[in-house]
Write a structure and sequence with these properties.
- The protein is of the alpha+beta class.
- It has two domains: 152 residues, Methane Monooxygenase Hydroxylase, Chain G, domain 1; 192 residues, Neurotransmitter-gated ion-channel ligand-binding domain (Acetylcholine Binding Protein, Chain: A, Distorted Sandwich).
- It is 35% helix and 26% strand.
- It has five helices and 13 strands.
- Strands 2, 3, 5, 6, 7, 8, 10 and 11 form an eight-stranded mixed sheet that branches.
- β2 and β3 form a beta hairpin.
- α1 runs parallel beside α5, α3 packs antiparallel against α4 and α4 packs antiparallel against α5.
Length: 379
């Protein structure tokens, strides 16, 4: 009697099949993560350009300058953010608490006429000066250098036109735009007190992380004379400083809050093809539930966006998910249309859970992974 060593080649097929399926699932998890990380690194140069954009909410034109206008009174301004909060994409507002200081030499007191051109009135807005007179009005401190100095704690809300196309992998640019509402640039110019600003700014930003800051100086030219007919339009230029903070969401928020729930629903829906049985009722119910669940889940993140928001990245990812579930649903429906050669319905032909069905479930999973990764990288 002969003894065979090893196993039949056919016995290896289940192991090979399971290995391939496990590899595909691992691939489906790692590829989107790699795509998000790659997109995050490749966006650095693009995002730095966003900090240079002029405000779309302000009238007039902006002339970028490197220093204050010659012959004008130079005022050094510093900003030290301590907290950024209330970043609301729906209302287009955000708020901040920060320390701000002025240092200057000259007769003009800039503290009274400094304002934020992109601020909005809010109930909790306040500015508290460190140095005041007996009446509580700001009064500058004279430094040993002969310069005048004032510092204040500012709590203010700002309006912002947020960029939403890459939500929830979006990066936003929060700007504090400082201008003098009285003195034009030929009389008073602002400069950042770069020598005394913190090297590493790290304010608390709930749900976001600080990616970088940038300082810009402009001459804000208005398009009319603002009613000062004696001066003319050409003289309507005001010194403006822009303190920009680039913030981004944590990638773990994208994985756990947005992508993972969708991924679970998709896996459950694709599983409809693996249900073994003589009837298609259960697979149809699973696929139908997957479609409805995905549609309702889409409304969960939609509440974080304005009602008139454009199509965002997450909308496209959910669209891909719905398309793949629809493929599963149509596969089950098509199987129910099978008929015997005599033209009559034969329940045996509706048998689900065949190898071709299981292969299709992994194919649609692969389609979702590849299209999602492509959207993350290209958008």
């Amino acid at each position: 009697m002969k003894t065979r060593i090893g196993c039949k080649p056919a016995s290896l097929l289940p192991q090979i099949f399971r290995f391939c399926m496990f590899s595909l699932v691992a691939f489906s998890i790692t590829v989107p993560m790699s795509a998000v990380n790659a997109a995050d690194h490749s966006q650095t140069n693009v995002s730095s350009l966003g900090l240079k954009k002029e405000s779309a909410l302000e009238k007039g034109s902006f002339e970028q300058v490197s220093r204050g206008r010659l012959g004008s009174q130079i005022v050094k301004i510093g900003i030290e953010p301590s907290e950024v909060y209330g970043v609301d994409l729906v209302s287009g507002r955000w708020s901040a608490t920060f320390q701000m200081w002025w240092r200057w030499t000259g007769e003009i007191d800039p503290t009274r006429d400094t304002y934020f051109t992109n601020s909005v009135e809010a109930e909790n807005d306040a500015i508290t000066y460190d140095y005041v007179d007996s009446q509580g009005d700001p009064k500058a401190l004279i430094l040993s250098t002969g310069e005048k100095y004032q510092r204040a704690i500012v709590r203010v809300s700002f309006v912002k036109e947020f960029e939403l196309k890459r939500f929830p992998l979006d990066r936003q640019f929060l700007q504090i735009r400082i201008e003098n509402k009285r003195w034009q640039s030929h009389s008073l110019s602002y400069e950042f007190d770069t020598a005394n600003l913190s090297v590493e700014e790290n304010p608390n930003i709930n749900g976001w992380s600080l990616a970088g800051t940038q300082l810009r100086s402009y001459i804000h030219h208005y398009k009319n004379d603002l009613g000062k007919v004696d001066e003319g339009i050409e003289n309507q230029g005001y010194s403006q400083l822009v303190y920009s903070m680039e913030i981004k969401r944590s990638t773990s928020q994208f994985y756990l809050k947005y992508l993972f729930p969708l991924f679970i629903v998709l896996i459950g829906s694709y599983g409809a093809l693996a249900v073994r049985g003589l009837a298609a009722k259960s697979p149809l119910a699973i696929a139908s539930s997957g479609l409805l669940t995905t549609l309702f889940a889409q409304q969960i993140y939609a509440k974080d966006l304005p009602s008139q928001a454009p199509v965002v990245l997450m909308d496209k990812i959910y669209g891909v998910g719905l398309f793949t579930i629809l493929m599963v649903f149509l596969r089950v429906v098509a199987r129910t249309q099978a008929k015997a050669p005599n033209g009559k319905f034969d329940e045996l032909l509706v048998f689900m859970g065949r190898k071709s069905d299981i292969y299709l479930s992994f194919i649609v999973l692969l389609v979702f992974v590849l299209l999602t990764s492509l959207l993350v990288l290209v958008e």
